[in-house]
Specification:
A hairpin with a 2-residue loop joins strand 11 and strand 12 (147-152). 0% of the residues lie in helices and 24% in strands. The chain has strands at residues 7-9, 18-20, 25-28, 38-39, 58-59, 98-99, 115-118, 123-127, 132-133, 136-137, 141-144, 147-152, 155-157, 160-164, 168-173, 177-179, 182-184, 211-212, 215-216, 281-286, 290-292, 297-299, 323-328, 332-334, 339-341, 408-413, 417-419, 422-424, 426-431. By secondary structure, it is mainly β. The strands form six sheets. An eight-stranded mixed beta sheet has the order 4-3-7-13-16-21-24-27, with no helix packed on it. Strands 10-9-8-14-17-22-25-28 form an eight-stranded mixed beta sheet, with no helix packed on it. It has a seven-stranded mixed beta sheet with strand order 11-12-15-20-23-26-29, with no helix packed on it.
């Protein structure tokens, strides 16, 4: 972890005074060294009692109006190597352009957070329900309704950042963000990702299958960027309808849950027939550049549904993929080694006379990967959705659940957006 030296930004006619006396650090060393999370104090107060712009964002100085008169350790570059910092051409806004992160309120974030460095093979766990980082509460991680907001300075993720909890996560970085590691915010079976919905709930949820005597039809897959797939019929019972396309493109909302299979009873068969849960929601809003390197990934896939209980109960519908929002006042660079995934989960197979149906796959990372429905020549569930491959209905008449839909991925920057990455979700790209 590199400790940053003090930095001072002098005001000009273009912006407000933002003064920072020292930047603390959150450092996670390699596991081999046994290092853990190390939060060191608080950064000094701003010279201006209101560091935010009139619209809630911090009004950054114009390119020619101010400068950082401190070593480049605090401007996004490396000391003495001549690398560009936040105030370099292409990595800061034109005069008067505010930093105003999407989806969160103007008082929920701060510009004096610590650095975050997650070393290779290290792992940091963020809990958005309890607002903890590796089990320790942090004054820089606060709740803004259904979103947990983590205020940081420079962010470097080479290991794994695992995110769990009921709230989505928005990381607000007052400097640059670099990633060669991973952010894991996906659903696993009936357990949702951060901000995702539990089975049979959420906007775009799949409808439950119907029971008829001892048998049941399949639950519908959850919808998000597209509609989810319907569950398959069994005997005289229609399958649950697939969930509708839901949520605005840049809304920080996790995926909905797939519908439960007909005849589902959480107290029987160990919950077999449950729908899959929705994938999580992650946002990174940076004042500096966002740069990904090999083999960086963010994964918010939906959960695979559970196969139906024996005695011909219906399989659950797959959960929908979640949402990824990346936005930078500078630039966004995603090389071909980068993967952003928001795929849907597979539907569960219908139960047989004597055996439970097979579970559907959790969503997969990669635009060509397929989350298969639970296996069964007569009872199989539908596949989860991905780019160019919408979710599918299970085997007709077998009571399998429908596949869940893919989620959304948003890239927006003031500067250049260079995207050669592997994108598995509905992509929206814009500049501002």
């Amino acid at each position: 972890m590199v400790a940053n030296g003090g930095a001072r930004v002098r005001s000009s006619s273009w912006g407000r005074l933002l003064a920072a006396l020292a930047v603390p650090a959150v450092s996670v060393g390699a596991l081999a060294l046994g290092c853990g999370l190390d939060a060191v104090g608080e950064r000094g107060a701003h010279g201006d009692s209101d560091p935010f712009g009139e619209d809630g964002g911090a009004n950054l100085p114009g390119k020619g109006g101010s400068h950082v008169d401190a070593p480049s350790t605090d401007d996004g570059g490396n000391p003495g190597d001549g690398s560009p910092g936040v105030d370099a051409e292409g990595q800061r806004p034109d005069a008067g352009v505010p930093f105003s992160p999407s989806n969160i309120g103007p008082t929920s974030y701060r510009l004096d957070g610590p650095d975050l460095s997650v070393a290779f093979v290290a792992k940091v766990v963020v809990d958005t329900t309890n607002l903890t980082v590796d089990g320790v509460t942090s004054p820089n991680l606060v709740a803004d309704g259904d979103i947990a907001v983590w205020s940081l300075h420079t962010v470097d993720i080479s290991g794994t950042l695992q995110v769990k909890g009921k709230r989505a996560l928005a990381i607000v970085a007052s400097n640059a963000v670099t990633m060669s590691g991973s952010i894991a915010a996906y659903a696993e079976g009936a357990t949702p990702g951060p901000g995702g919905a539990v089975p049979s709930s959420g906007t775009g949820k799949g409808a439950d299958g119907l029971a008829s005597g001892d048998s049941g039809s399949g639950g519908g897959g959850a919808g998000h960027a597209t509609t989810g797939a319907a569950g398959s019929t069994r005997l005289m019972s229609a399958g649950g309808t697939g969930g509708a396309s839901a949520n605005a493109a840049n809304a920080l909302v996790g995926g909905a849950g797939g519908g439960n299979g007909g005849g589902f009873d959480k107290n029987q068969c160990k919950g077999q027939g449950s729908g899959g849960a929705g994938g999580g929601a992650i946002q990174i809003s940076a004042m500096g550049a966002i740069t990904f390197g090999f083999p960086a990934s963010i994964d918010v896939h939906g959960g695979g549904a559970l196969g139906g209980c024996s005695k011909s109960k219906g399989g659950g519908g797959g959960g929908a993929g979640g949402t990824i929002v990346l936005e930078s006042v500078g630039s966004i660079t995603l090389p071909s080694s980068t993967s952003l995934g928001a795929t849907g989960g597979g539907g569960g197979a219908g139960g047989g006379d004597l055996l439970d149906g097979y579970d559907g796959d959790d969503g997969k990372l990669g635009p060509s990967a397929v989350a298969f429905g639970g296996l069964g020549s007569q009872t199989g569930g539908g596949n989860g959705g991905n780019v160019g491959n919408p979710p599918t209905i299970g085997v007709s008449g077998g009571g399998g659940g429908g596949g869940g839909a893919m989620g959304r991925i948003v890239l927006r920057a003031r500067g250049n957006v260079s995207n050669a990455g592997n994108i598995a979700g509905e992509l929206t790209t814009s500049t501002f």
